UniProtKB/TrEMBL annotation:
Entries under InterPro entries matching the protein: DUF8040, HARBI1-like, HARBI1_dom
DDE Tnp4 domain boundaries: 153-313
PANTHER family to which the protein is assigned, alphabetical: NUCLEASE HARBI1, PTHR22930
Ranges in a coiled coil: none
Organism: Acer negundo
Species lineage: Eukaryota, Viridiplantae, Streptophyta, Embryophyta, Tracheophyta
Keywords: Hydrolase, Metal-binding, Nuclease, Nucleus
Ligase found in the keyword field: no
Superkingdom per UniProt: Eukaryota
Protein name: DDE Tnp4 domain-containing protein
Length: 392
């Protein structure tokens, strides 16, 4: 007969003397209590979120019946085990040494918490609103040109561990094993949508195709659009850079003077799209388990990405100014010095014209998207050359 959670949450292995289970079993509880009774910064350091946020998440998981206390391990400790693993990229044995539970107990509660958060992850992804994002409205380099822009879309490769027979499709163009994850994010560093699990060899455009055609698809409100980089095509709901002019994937260096409307447009699009770099940076800073392949089944590795993004959103909503977010928030209001000569820039990676969108657009739809980009660039350039000291 299968034992209950209460019966299985004992201490095993590690050369623990018989008869000492009760005292040793309390070590994990003692550690969690010390962290939660200490300064909030200690909770952030160990469990990757402030104390009020941690307790609120516990309350949500308990209220929805997704986690329950056991005789030995309270919900707080179950969540602490999970957060400690993903927040420090630790393996089960290392966590055993700290919490003094068996590897089976650690793994069981890790998966329980993972599945619990996964089951409500959709609650933490909010679709974009209809208002102009403050980050656009309050910056004259972006407004009114990008007034209908709701965020940016990009892909990121997350290391993955798979069996030898499965490795071929998961090898990206650098020869590393990864899953190609697509994310649509807002300018205030929240994820609108995440699609994980695609093989590392899949192109970014192919993953975007999947996001637009699957049942739980990425939806773009009517009249709105996301910004893309030069890996993608220009299409309805998405605006990409001009492919035939320099494009900076990172922040434009001071002193670069655009030569025409297309260069100016590409510069500002790149600057606005830096939100994706910052949100991915904050995500990996908080959850370093995403930076190396964890020894879990592939399905678990995929869930980990979605759950990490969901937790990122939850924490961003509840505590938007913790030190991890502050590290990756960036002031884009700096002034560019236009008195310096142009700088040499790298040519962009050109979009592969052989890739075809799975979703069909009429020629007039594609033409309208192209015209929209041209009109934005023209308006931007007219204002730029009218005001000599206008900053990027």
């Amino acid at each position: 007969m299968e034992s209950s959670d209460d019966e299985r949450d004992g201490v095993y292995g590690n050369n623990i003397p018989k008869g000492s289970s009760h005292n040793v079993a309390s070590n994990g509880t003692k550690f969690v209590d010390e962290v939660l009774n200490g300064h909030s910064e200690r909770c952030l350091e160990n469990f990757r979120m402030d104390k009020p946020v941690f307790y609120k998440l516990c309350d949500i998981l308990q209220a929805k019946g997704l986690l329950r206390h056991t005789t030995r391990i309270k919900i707080e400790e179950q969540l602490a085990i999970f957060m400690f693993i993903i927040g420090h990229n630790l393996r089960t044995r290392a966590v055993q040494e700290l919490f003094r539970y068996s590897g089976e107990t650690i793994s069981r509660h890790f998966n329980k918490v993972l599945n619990a958060i996964m089951s409500i992850s959709v609650d933490f992804f909010q679709p974009p609103g209809s208002d102009v994002p403050p980050e656009i409205y309050e910056d004259p380099r972006f407004y009114p040109y990008f007034k209908d822009c709701i965020g940016a879309v990009d892909g990121i490769h997350i290391p993955v561990m798979v069996g030898v027979d499965e490795q071929g499709p998961f090898r990206n163009r650098n020869g590393l094993l990864s899953q190609n994850v697509l994310a649509a994010c807002s300018f205030d560093l929240k994820f609108h949508y995440v699609l994980a699990g695609w093989e590392g060899s899949a192109s970014d455009l192919r993953v975007l195709n999947s996001a637009l055609t699957r049942r739980n698809k990425l939806q773009v409100p009517e009249g709105k659009y996301y910004l893309l980089d030069n890996k993608y095509a220009n299409m309805p709901g998405f605006i990409s850079p001009y492919q035939d002019v320099p494009y900076h994937s990172n922040q434009i260096p001071s002193g670069y003077h655009p030569q025409d409307a297309k260069e100016l447009f590409n510069q500002r699009l790149s600057l606005a799209r830096s939100a994706t770099d910052r949100i991915f940076g904050a995500l990996k800073e908080r959850f370093p388990i995403l930076m190396s392949a964890p020894p879990y089944p592939l399905q678990t590795q995929v869930k980990l990405v979605v759950v990490a993004c969901a937790l990122h959103n939850f924490i961003r909503r509840e505590k938007p100014d913790d030190w991890i977010f502050r590290t990756y928030e960036q002031d884009l209001s700096f002034q560019m010095d236009e008195s310096l000569p142009p700088l040499e820039v790298e040519q962009p990676l050109m979009h592969d014209a052989t890739q075809v969108l799975d979703i069909s657009f009429q020629p007039d739809q594609l033409d309208l998207t192209s015209q929209l980009r041209d009109s934005i660039a023209a308006e931007m350039w007219d204002d730029y050359i009218t005001h000599v000291n206008y900053s990027l």
